[in-house]
Design brief:
α2 (37-52) packs across α3 (63-84). The chain has 106 residues and is mostly helical. It has a domain at 22-79. The chain has helices at 19-23, 37-52, 63-84.
Length: 106
């Protein structure tokens, strides 16, 4: 039989890229106060351009900006649903139901 060595080793990976490097150094996890009205308006215009297909990529610099962008997209979608929704059909007139019913006893 062969001798098997039983030595503990550590699996160390050197130089694994950080997920933050993917976003670049401009990304911050700022989740403090909400964006100003001017910044919200800017995100609304950006969302409209993105949804129309005028721009392909959106540069997100903070978590607050990402949340606001998603909220603006949701608002635009809900506005579209309200515009395209058919009005509810009116209830049938009550005269249809007021005809007498003959009850036959067995």
């Amino acid at each position: 039989m062969k001798k098997v060595s039983n030595e503990p080793t550590a699996n160390i990976q050197v130089g694994s890229p950080s997920p933050l490097k993917k976003f670049g150094s401009n990304f911050t996890y700022r989740d403090g106060p909400p964006l100003t009205p001017e910044e919200q308006q800017e995100q609304l215009l950006l969302a409209k351009k993105y949804l129309r297909g005028d721009i392909a990529d959106v540069e997100i610099k903070s978590l607050a900006q990402a949340k606001e962008f998603i909220n603006q997209c949701r608002n635009l979608y809900q506005d579209l649903l309200l515009l395209t929704q058919e009005p509810p059909s009116p209830l049938p007139s009550l005269s249809v139901y007021s005809t007498p019913v003959n009850i036959v006893s067995l």
